[in-house]
Please model this.
Amino acid sequence: MTTIDPRKLGPRARKVKILATIGPASADPDMLRRLVRAGADAFRVNLSHGEHETHARSIAAIRALEKELHRPLAILCDLQGPKLRVGAFAEGRALIPHGARFTLDRDPTPGDATRVQLPHPELFGLMDKGQRLLINDGKIRLRVVEASADAITCTAEVGGVISDRKGVNVPDAEVPIPALTEKDRRDLAFAMEQNADWIGLSFVQRPEDLVEARKLMGGRGALCAKIEKPQAIKRLAEIIELADGVMVARGDLGVELNPEEVPPLQKKIVNATRLLGKPVIVATQMLESMIESPAPTRAEVSDVANAVYDGADCVMLSAETAAGQWPEEAVLMMDAIARQVERDDAYQGRVRMLATPPDPTTADALAHACMTIADTVSIGAIAVFTSTGVSARRVSRERPSVPVMVLTPSVAVARRVALVWGAHSVATKDIGSFEEMIGKAKRMALRHGMATKDSKLVVLAGVPFGVAGATNLLHVVTLKGDELEQHGG
Model:
């Protein structure tokens, strides 16, 4: 039996991935190391907060950890997006009584309990009577009674304290603003300079919102569409088609929708993304109480478990690891929940309740066959040779019962695949022949603790080797157990 180098991280004892947000509580290199060892597979850099210099230090620390632990780690840089906000108040805040009239207008004069500036000209002329405006994450709910080119007069269905520059949500209209602000463009350029693996595009409303970001990325990195606007649901299939992955951003989605509408939408988005074989992340408030408590609520545990049962590729921690008092414990808890769910005898059946029929292509047929073989024969792992990561996503879409070892000559692909369900990515030299492919698959399976003597491997690749999109070869091999020694270690 092969012994894994203790300095390295062996394969996770789960298939769902954990994305942890970096912030003041987790930016220290030692804490980042502890989070990876606790179970974090990827890190989110929230560009809404902090300076580029601070983020660059965190990214450098993650890249150093990759070398230390011999594990590709994905970095997702999350753009702030076009956040709508009210202007300032004469006293910094005001109280809007329930049922009172309140006006949002173009006048830059500091506001009071009756009015405030709305510094977004695109909203004037857009709003109609009866539509809603939600302020401060929905804590204040206004209903439009009259709208003109200069003012939007509302009734406060739910009043309360409103203060300077609080956020505004417009759930009943598609706001004609670009998905990228000037700040986002600067942040995106920074993320590309830092070789970010994923870019999170906030407040996507329509497929066209992805086009500019994709163009600015210039073929580098992968684009994750954050679904947090009701308007995005209307064109969900088109958005998923254009994106490389999707995030169910339940925070703003829960502000603009009734709370009871979010769970079925979460399942709809997860299923629609899985059908297209793209990674889907479930995010926001998953273990929210662990910001201050070392233990989650039972409801939060169930929430995480349900996302795992639904077959999400990845579950995300936000403030829990960015600013919470228990960042390491939050990752350990999420890891424990995922492992417990995946040990459930009913788990495999649950994640396959979604039928994912293969497309009529050789590559899809072979990916489906990998899953069937693993169900029929005792298999240690599926070894996928890929130069783009597409084959790995195809195999993962089938939710096989064994891990997927992704072997790629591209470090960028190895990192990107770190968000994909069941994938254990390994950056390794390219192959040039069938014999070399089989030998490498056996050695890597032994070296990474995914197989032992007499284990079987399913190997998926394409001939000619090194050509993207040529997946056409499936082979089942049995290990003798001495392949590493025969190769000199």
